[in-house]
Specification:
Shape of chain A: globular
Strand content of chain A: over 45%
Order of helices and strands of chain B: HEHEHEHEEHEHEHEEEHHHEEEE
CATH topology of the largest domain in chain B: Rossmann fold
Strand order of the largest sheet of chain A: 3-2-1-28
Mean pLDDT of chain B: 92
Mean pLDDT of chain A: 92
Oligomer: heterodimer
Largest interface: A-B, 28 and 22 residues
Strand content of chain B: 15-25%
Number of helices of chain A: 1
Number of strands of chain A: 28
CATH class of the largest domain in chain B: Alpha Beta
CATH superfamily of the largest domain in chain B: Response regulator
Distance between the termini of chain A: 37 Å
Low-confidence stretches of chain A: 1-17
Order of helices and strands of chain A: HEEEEEEEEEEEEEEEEEEEEEEEEEEEE
Number of helices of chain B: 10
Number of strands of chain B: 14
Structural class of chain A: mainly beta
Largest sheet of chain A: 4 strands, antiparallel
CATH architecture of the largest domain in chain B: 3-Layer(aba) Sandwich
């Protein structure tokens, strides 16, 4: 009996290697919640620096990087030991960041400084800065790795940056307060959410032109409450999910018709999201209700709510 | 011939973009009266560059964007000295500036607006909260980024009613603007179902605002002034003239909170505002001006950002084009208040949430939950379209 118990313990201990783990940054608690997606429970809460927001796994899945804006750095969490093991030399007030496909170069938006900082992830060294618009935030990289996208919240543009020359090659005006940028996996479209504008702009990345806009309408809800932030796109590029902030909903968008097919009610002030690697589930961070909603992607239904720390902001799931 | 010509233009445009040479210049003037008003609290004494410091930051923000759009913004400030003719000063400023941000008393602003009307200069009223500038005396060439007295009073009124502090003791100063603020507060009480249980007037008998042993006297004076009031929940003070309101908190006969011109104060902005990305804005401001950002700074920042937003959307520095866009249906601006700000087309007043602050923290932001409106909840603050007496001309 005792032995059986021990055995069970061993099995449990061995599980994390296979189970899918999600990391959630809690902006107000200064913590990162670790969620086991088998049991849908918080298994650990890691203390980090001040104001953790942008969070992402390294490509090898060994570390989790979290931008702690008020400490002007990015902390590195060892996914095995759940301990903060290192910091990266970002600029002041890092918020969101993205990495190239090889996981060698990290690009960080420094909100306070109108710059994007380029970091060599292996050497953990700062390679340089790129001047962008006022309050840089959204960051993503094109599937071919050649173009870095940064959105600036007060300039209201998506800046197209050539990753080899580190020069801005184009600027595309979008609606007020662009927060997040997401490429289609086939690179044919770039989607940019505008929190205050209440829209998602679809940009042709070759022509650098806005080719369409997705608008949202929820009966009984005032227009101002619809504030798109996070975007998730399925691997087949057929369905997109858009977090609508204080509208407390995630919009399901058919990417072919560019129409909203469904609104899913989640927690309060939903911002960012991440898919499980098998794309069965989509997890969203709900800032005001301090929880994470689990969406069954195929059924397009919210199946679970998990309490995390205060003001959950970003989320990343092990690759 | 035509084809050759078009080709040449195309080349010229391409060359301009490549060299980023000759950006379009957009010149903004800032007009104000010299000198600052005296406040009861030393902490609240406005800085010499109150307002214009916000315009300066917005010029920097616009120029960061301008690097990508080929636009460059400049700011020229003029302070009207005592005895100087405001219209002459404004006309001189309008020589080089198509846009003027004004922090002027209502009468002066009207004179300036009428004098500049035929020039096509677009004015932004960043300072005056007078209702009449948006009502009977509204002008088609003046956009208001300053909130109105009724917007401020309604913002406070909604919160007090939400808090169920619905019995108000109203104390009004003896100057004209105090009475106007009291009018707005009475209107708010009626609209939102609060009751003014009694009104008292605090006469300004003159005297210095700062004396070495003033506190002893005030400590005796204020409890006496507020005693024998009917049962009330909150004392609401209308004292724009800075004569008495700041003396009321902690000194009322009955232990009651104070709101209005002291205690819980409605403002368009506050140095403590840190929601909706405002932290970045506050730190940019502090870095540039080595002090904290006031409501007037924000009203001026918003005016200059509105110009920048419109020039970047219309790709034009032409005053007429920019004016039409700002006054049109598609204009919206983000200003760290959690929602888009738009312009009321019937009187050119900027719709905006109002913060309720206590000098250290943002206590709440109005409109409050549950105050509904068929067009925009921001229109639950201030005079709405059906009540408006404004005929834009």
């Amino acid at each position: 009996m005792v032995r059986a118990g021990l055995l069970a313990g061993l099995v449990l201990a061995a599980t994390p290697a296979h189970a899918v783990i999600a990391y959630v940054s809690n902006e107000k608690s200064n913590t990162v919640s670790v969620i086991d997606t088998d049991s849908w429970t918080v298994t650990e809460t890691i203390k980090v620096g001040q104001r953790p927001r942008g969070i992402e796994f390294t490509r090898d899945g060994k570390f989790v990087m979290v931008a702690v804006g008020d400490d002007d750095t990015i902390q590195v969490i060892d996914a095995k030991t759940q301990a903060v093991v290192d910091t990266l030399p970002s600029g002041p007030d890092p918020e969101l960041f993205t990495q190239d496909a090889a996981g060698k170069t990290l690009y960080v938006a420094n909100e306070n400084d109108n710059t994007v900082t380029v970091i060599d992830l292996e050497k953990r060294a700062r390679l340089g800065d790129i001047q962008v618009g006022v309050e840089p935030e959204g960051m993503t990289i094109s599937p071919d790795g050649k173009t870095l996208i940064n959105t600036s919240e007060t300039t209201n543009m998506a800046h197209f940056i050539d990753t080899s020359s580190r020069q801005i090659v184009a600027n595309v005006l979008v609606d007020p307060r662009p927060r997040f940028a997401q490429f289609k996996h086939d690179a044919s479209e770039l989607w940019v959410s505008s929190e205050i504008g209440g829209t998602v702009s679809i940009i042709d990345p070759a022509k650098h032109e806005v080719t369409g806009k997705i608008t949202f309408e929820i009966p009984g809800l005032r227009k101002e409450a619809i504030q798109p932030v996070g975007i998730g796109m399925t691997k087949d590029d057929k369905t997109a999910f858009v977090a609508l902030g204080p509208a407390n909903r995630v919009a399901v968008v058919d990417t072919a018709s560019r129409k909203v097919t469904k609104y899913l009610l989640v927690g309060q002030r939903v911002w960012h999201m991440a898919f499980t690697p098998d794309e069965k589930y989509l997890l969203t961070t709900n800032g005001v209700s301090n929880d994470v909603s689990v969406i069954d992607v195929a059924a397009q239904k919210v199946i679970k709510t998990i309490q995390v720390g205060e003001l959950p902001w970003g989320i990343t799931i092990a690759p | 011939m035509i084809r050759w010509f078009v080709g040449l233009i195309g080349l010229a445009v391409a060359a301009t973009q490549a060299l980023a040479a000759d950006p379009v210049e957009i010149n903004v003037g800032y007009l104000r009266v010299a000198g600052t008003k005296s406040t009861l609290s030393l902490v609240e004494q406005p800085a010499d560059n109150d307002g214009v410091a916000g315009a300066k930051l917005a010029i920097e923000d616009n120029n960061t964007t301008g690097r990508f759009t080929g636009q460059r913004f400049t700011l020229e400030e003029h302070r009207i000295k005592q005895g100087e003719d405001a219209v002459q000063a404004a006309t001189a400023l309008a020589e080089h500036n198509g846009f003027i941000v004004a922090d002027l008393p209502a009468d002066t602003l009207l004179k300036v607006a009428d004098a500049l009307r035929d020039r096509g200069t677009l004015l932004f009223n960043a300072g005056a909260i007078d209702e009449r500038l948006r009502e009977a005396d509204c002008r088609a060439n003046v956009i208001h980024t300053a909130p109105t007295r009724s917007m401020l009073a309604d913002a406070l009124g909604q919160y007090l009613v939400w808090k169920k502090w619905s019995r108000w003791l109203l104390v009004v100063g003896s100057h004209d603007e105090d009475r106007l603020y009291a009018d707005a507060l009475r209107r708010a009480a009626t609209r939102f179902g609060a009751k003014i249980v009694q009104e008292r007037t605090f006469e300004d008998k003159g005297g210095a605002r700062r004396t070495d042993s003033g506190v002893t006297l005030i400590q005796r004076q204020m409890p006496v002034f507020t005693q024998q009031a009917p049962a009330y929940d909150v004392l609401v003070a209308a004292d724009e003239s800075e004569v008495f309101a700041a003396y009321l908190p902690y000194r009322t006969w009955d232990p009651r909170p104070v709101a209005g011109s002291a205690g819980l104060v409605p403002r368009s902005w506050d140095a403590a505002q840190d929601q909706w990305g405002a932290t970045q804005m506050q730190s940019r401001f502090i870095r540039l001006n080595a002090r904290r950002m006031t409501a007037l700074d924000m009203q001026a920042w918003t005016a200059v950002r509105m110009i920048g937003e419109a020039t970047s959307r219309t790709k034009s520095g032409d005053v007429k084009t920019v004016t039409d866009f700002i006054e049109g249906p598609n204009f919206e601006i983000a200003a760290f208040k959690g929602t888009r700000l738009t312009v009321r087309d019937w009187n050119l007043q900027l719709r905006q949430p109002i913060l309720l602050v206590d000098g250290r923290m943002v206590v709440s932001v109005s409109p409050q939950e549950g105050f509904l409106h068929q067009v925009s909840e921001l229109d639950t603050l201030g005079y709405d379209r059906p009540e408006s007496k404004c005929k834009l001309k």
